[in-house]
Structure formats: structure tokens, C-alpha cells
Amino acid sequence: MERKENILIVDDDPSIRKVLTAILEEKGYNVETVDNGKKAIQKSKIRFYNLALIDIRLPDMRGTELLTQMKQTVPKMMKVMITGYPSLQNAVEALNNGADAYIIKPLDIDNALSVIENLLQKQRDSLKMTQERIVEYIETRAKQLEQEEISK
């Protein structure tokens, strides 16, 4: 099954970006990368990304700050915090600032792929439910309008 989801990797380490890109593209995802938070914000204003993998330490801002800014520009995007500096404080701060998951480096690729796929499936399910609600609303409203016309 070919995937169409877009993933943004935000990490200042070129080797991490290269490895993650290769793995995710092999799985069928469209992948773009940036090395800092400002570029991530710029890209997310131009293109919709289903998911972003965000390093907690970036050269221009903390990953948790980027989470907050991206939540405002792209609220439906899934956001995964990646860190080589795990701590309870970092995890709590990431989740409080809008992270949907928290992954520790060095990455367990199978676990990371599982987290990514689960989040994207959650996003697809949410979209499907939203579309179904819209259809229900339109059908209900059409019946209401028909009834109003008959009542006139």
C-alpha cells in the first residue's frame, strides 16, 4: 500500500536526517528535512505535514518551543519529540506543549516506525470521523429544509 503522508524531520544532525529520510521514504512516506526551528515553521506554513519528528535541542530554539509554535500554525499535524537527553522534565514539557509522542535516541527503528504509523492511523481515523459528521450534517440539514418547504 502506497502512503501519501508527508513527514517533516527537524534535526540539526545531518546523519539523523539522512537515516530517517531513507527509512521513511522506503516505507512510502514523502519526507522533507530542515536543520532548525525557523525553517520548520516556514515549511509548515507552505505545506501540510501529517507528522513532524522534532529534535528537542535545535540550534535556534528548544524543540518544545517549536512544538508550541507549530501547534498554532498546523494544529492537526502529529508531532513527535525526539531526544538524546531523556528526562521526566523534558517528557512532561514536550507533552504539555503538544507532542503526541516522545522517542529517545538512539532510535529503536521498529519502535519509531510503530509510533509513527499509530499516530498517522489515529490522524486518518479522526479525518474519517470528521468527514462522516459533515455528511450527516448535510443530510440532516437537507431533510430539515425539505420539511420547511413542505410546511410552507
- Separation of termini? 52 Å
Quick check: average pLDDT? 88
Strand content: 15-25%
Structural class: alpha/beta
CATH domain class name: Alpha Beta
Radius of gyration from the CA trace?
19 Å
Number of continuous helical runs:
5
Strand segment tally: 5
Spell the H/E element sequence.
Answer: EHEHEHEHEH
Uncertain residue segments = none
Question: Roughly what percent helix?
Answer: 55-70%
Overview of the molecule:
By secondary structure, the protein is an alpha/beta fold. The chain has one domain (6-126): Rossmann fold, CATH 3.40.50.2300. It has five helices and five strands. It has helices at residues 14-26, 37-46, 63-73, 88-96, 109-151; strands at residues 6-10, 30-34, 51-55, 78-83, 101-104. Strands 2-1-3-4-5 form a five-stranded parallel beta sheet, sandwiched between helices. Strand 1, helix 1 and strand 2 form a beta-alpha-beta unit. Helix 2 (37-46) runs parallel beside helix 3.
Task: List its salient traits.
152 residues, alpha/beta, Rossmann fold, five-stranded parallel beta sheet, 5 helices
